[in-house]
Specification:
- The strands form eleven sheets. Strands 2, 4, 8, 9, 11 and 22 form a six-stranded mixed β-sheet that branches. Strands 12-13-15-21-18-19 form a six-stranded mixed β-sheet, with no helix packed on it.
- About 5% of the residues lie in helices and about 40% in strands.
- It is rod-shaped and about 160 Å long.
- It has five domains: about 1-150, Spermadhesin, CUB domain (Jelly Rolls, Sandwich); about 150-310, Jelly Rolls (Sandwich); about 325-455, Jelly Rolls (Sandwich); about 460-600, Jelly Rolls (Sandwich), CATH 2.60.120.290; about 605-720, Jelly Rolls, CATH 2.60.120.
């Protein structure tokens, strides 16, 4: 800058010698707390029409504080701005310590009618006034002072000593390339150079912004003409000096905002003029890039911009972070549900986002909104459509207009929280469309929960019932309903009946192995298992005798076997309506699980044998071998004379090998089947077994069980007689 000052001084010295004008070419000391007034030189008749170069070298008085130079213009009328060129004269403000940077700085010209400020964070500044043709209206008047950071809260905040990085770090060798790192709330001020004063001419400023957490958010505060005023006016006057409204058509000065690291990232918007600036601009990550360009020639008018940087919270466990996604049930990784959130960052007009929720072939999809509301957003583009933005749920894998479950519009009131939307098949499509675009997320704000529910059942579903099933296969598994949507806000207790029914011509009994119950335990009415206040499960066959019952008071922990007295049994599960949703809607584990098998095929004959008198039983009956010959399990109820000694003789056994897995004969008490009078697996197949059951243990009902892997492996004869009275 020293060489530049010498050159300017020489030119201005020649002017002073020729015309004798005084007041130019001064070195001014800027002092905090006082100001130095400077006026343009007096114009005499002889100087009219001549050229002029006048400079002022401003220096800050040495201080322990980090000070700024402030130049307050009360009047300024130098040259004219025609199109984008200063004609007839200008002022150049040189404040960089780098000569190459000063070579790029531009010129101010024209007239001001209101006070204007130039503020620079520097220790030295050179003002150079150049006039090609002196006229009698040439004028400038300004005062010079020094300001501390505390004197400029608009630029540095209220406590600059605690937040030295608010205005970023300027890259060495540049005028205004600035880096902001890890911005937090009220911690980063992104401003045009010299804000809140008039910004310099001929600059290209690059701002690299980052926050600790996504999503990065840029916003303005206060009156819009104070926070954004870029090329809003090219002159000040009563005629022909209109304000440029906020626009993206910017021929001279402008600000460009990019979504990412640099200018190669997607362009969010380009701004110039003044007006209601977007309240927020939210990026898609934790980085944003801002570029500010001012033309080389321009007025001494506009103050630039003042942006604040923070981050907008972004939940981690959401599934629609990108615009178009397929979300499969397996992606939940065992978790019961997933989350969809409305778009929280900027997006372009014409955005069309689809989220396909895809279950397995046997699943349906449920979606409901925890929260939904209409927000006022700053749109990128106005729309003439009734719905500038809308959200549609389809019962399909594509936007089928014939399968719309529900549609929401940003111009209509919304009150659809906690309503279940359920697909009829394994697909549901959520489609968001915006004709307007947005700087800061969707105008239809929503927080949606989705999950997948199995509809496949082990048995055959009973029509016109909520969850009843019928089981007719020989062997099978029974579970509580996989489709837990039946527990969603029921208006009465949930009742499910599982009927196991054999063909009585082929099988006459059913074995049920209840493996466990898994109710949410609660002490309601533990004295009465089938109370409406309880969750419970009952097993009942065709007899009038009540079967087992298990309630939410105490769960079944070990396997329990139940043998029916006939070819049918019913399992009834009841869930209290007041606890159904909370306890079971999002629960994937079954409430109970059981295995069943059909027993006592026709080869076994009747299930009941009246044994009041002496008699015998031969098994198998060769005449019925064609009916069932594999895995035979027969259970007879022998009704004997009670309280009388009865003697059973088992003979003519021809079991080929000793193997309890293949064949066995068991006589036991009907009251306690663990009390076995006889258990024979072939160990004494060549001998006759004689068993006496005393009257004290003969309650008149004896169980006889026979298991045979194959009827061809052997046979036996059972006879019984009573002791003489």
């Amino acid at each position: 800058m020293a060489i530049r000052i010498i050159y300017i001084w020489f030119v201005s010295f020649l002017f002073e010698c020729s015309f004798g004008l005084q007041g130019c070419n001064q070195t001014i000391e800027a002092i905090q707390g006082s100001s130095k007034l400077v006026r343009s030189p007096y114009i005499n008749y002889e100087s009219l029409g001549k050229s002029l170069v006048c400079w002022y070298n401003i220096r800050i008085k040495p201080s322990l504080l980090e000070l700024n130079i402030e130049v307050d213009f009360d009047s300024f009328n130098v040259g004219k701005l025609v199109d984008n060129n200063c004609l007839g004269g200008h002022i150049q403000v040189l404040d960089s310590k780098y000569e190459a940077v000063n070579d790029e700085l531009g010129y101010h010209c024209g007239e001001i009618r209101q006070p204007k400020k130039i503020i620079r964070q520097t220790n030295a500044m050179l003002l150079v006034f150049t006039v090609q043709n002196i006229s009698d209206d040439l004028e400038w008047k300004f005062s010079v002072s020094a300001l501390s950071k505390e004197d400029l809260p608009e630029r540095y905040g209220s406590h600059p000593q605690f937040f030295p990085g608010k205005v970023g770090a300027i890259v060495d060798g540049t005028y205004c390339e600035t880096v902001f790192q890890d911005c937090r709330e009220q911690n980063c001020y992104v401003q045009s150079p010299g804000f809140p004063g008039v910004y310099p001419r001929g600059v290209s400023c690059r701002y690299y912004l980052s926050t600790k957490a996504p999503l990065i958010r840029m916003y303005t505060e206060g009156l819009y003409w104070n926070s954004f005023n870029v090329d809003a006016r090219r002159c000040e006057g009563y005629f022909g000096c209109d304000f440029r409204q906020l626009s993206d058509e910017c021929p001279y000065d402008y600000v460009s905002v990019y979504d990412g690291l640099d200018e190669y990232s997607p362009l969010i918007a380009k701004f110039c003029g003044t007006g209601v600036f977007p309240r927020s601009i939210i990026g898609t990550s934790n980085r944003m890039f801002v570029e500010f360009i001012s033309s080389r020639h321009g007025p001494l008018q506009n103050t630039g911009f003042d942006f604040k940087i923070t981050s907008s919270p972004s939940p981690e466990k959401i599934y629609n972070r990108t615009c178009n996604q397929v979300i499969q049930s397996g992606q939940l990784n065992g978790k019961g549900e997933g989350t969809l959130l409305s778009i929280e960052h900027w997006y372009k007009p014409g955005t069309n986002c689809t989220y396909l929720l895809q279950g397995s072939a046997t699943q349906v999809v449920r979606l409901y909104f925890m929260k939904m509301k209409i927000n006022n957003r700053d749109y990128i583009k106005e729309s003439n459509e009734t719905c500038g933005e809308y959200l549609v749920i389809y019962d399909s894998f594509w936007p089928d207009p014939n399968k719309i479950i529900k549609a929401f519009c940003n111009t209509l009131a919304i009150s659809e929280q906690r309503v279940d939307y359920i697909s009829t098949g394994p697909h549901m499509l959520v489609n968001f469309v915006s004709n307007t675009g947005s700087y800061a997320g969707s105008s239809i704000y929503y927080w949606a929960i989705f999950d997948f529910h199995e509809t496949e059942s082990e048995g055959e579903k009973v029509g016109n019932t909520l969850c009843d099933e019928v089981f007719t296969r020989k062997v099978g598994r029974i579970n509580s309903p996989r489709n837990t949507l039946i527990y969603s806000n029921p208006n009465k207790n949930v009742m499910c009946k599982f009927t196991v029914e054999a063909d009585s011509l082929q099988f006459r009994r059913i074995s049920l192995l209840l493996e466990f119950t898994n109710f949410v335990e609660a002490n309601q009415d533990c004295k009465n298992c089938v109370s409406k206040a309880n969750d419970y499960l009952t097993i009942q066959d065709e007899s009038s005798k009540p079967g087992p019952c298990h309630s939410s008071c105490v769960n079944l922990k070990s396997v329990q076997e139940f043998i029916s007295s006939g070819p049918r049994l019913d399992i009834t599960m009841a869930i209290n309506k007041d606890r159904a949703t909370q306890n079971y809607l999002n629960r994937k584990a079954p409430i109970f699980q059981a295995m069943y098998s059909f027993l006592h095929p026709s080869v076994c004959g009747p299930v009941q044998i009246v044994a009041n008198n002496s008699g015998y039983l031969v098994f198998p009956d060769k005449r019925n071998l064609k009916l069932e010959a594999e895995d035979v399990y027969c259970i007879w109820d022998l009704f004997t004379k009670p309280r009388v000694l009865v003697q059973f003789t088992i003979g003519n056994k021809t079991f080929y090998e000793e193997d309890c897995m293949k064949h066995s004969i068991t006589l036991s008490s009907s009251v306690d089947e663990s009390e076995k009078f006889l258990e024979e697996c072939g160990k004494s197949r060549s001998k006759t077994n004689v068993v006496q059951i005393p009257g004290t243990k003969n309650n008149g009902h004896i169980k006889l069980k026979v298991k045979m892997k194959n009827l061809n492996v052997g046979k036996f004869q059972l006879s019984w007689i009573y002791a003489a009275k």
